[in-house]
Specification:
Layout (H helix, E strand, L loop, with lengths): L9 H36 L5 H39 L1
């Protein structure tokens, strides 16, 4: 009888099948871990600013600084004028 007819040829095939199943289980576990990590990344990305968000923020900050600068300059000029007026006429 040959090896094929007495069932010995099926032994390596069965071992290969078991090895393949074990590898597939491992792949499944790794895919599950990757899915969890991707969910974490997607959740984090919801809180990350886009370029448009940053540009808008920059614009708002510059406008606020400009307005604040003019208010401070006006206040300073007013104080200087008041002190000069008091010093001159008192």
């Amino acid at each position: 009888m040959t090896a094929e007819t007495n069932g010995q040829a099926n032994i390596p095939a069965a071992e290969g099948y078991r090895a393949l199943r074990a590898e597939m289980r491992e792949v499944g576990q790794r895919v599950g871990a990757l899915e969890q990590r991707m969910a974490s990344v997607e959740a984090t990305l919801q809180h990350v600013a886009t370029k448009a968000d940053l540009y808008e923020l920059k614009s708002n900050v510059l406008q606020a600084l400009n307005a604040q600068t003019w208010k401070m300059m006006g206040f300073g000029i007013t104080i200087v004028a008041a002190v000069f007026g008091l010093a001159r006429y008192l």
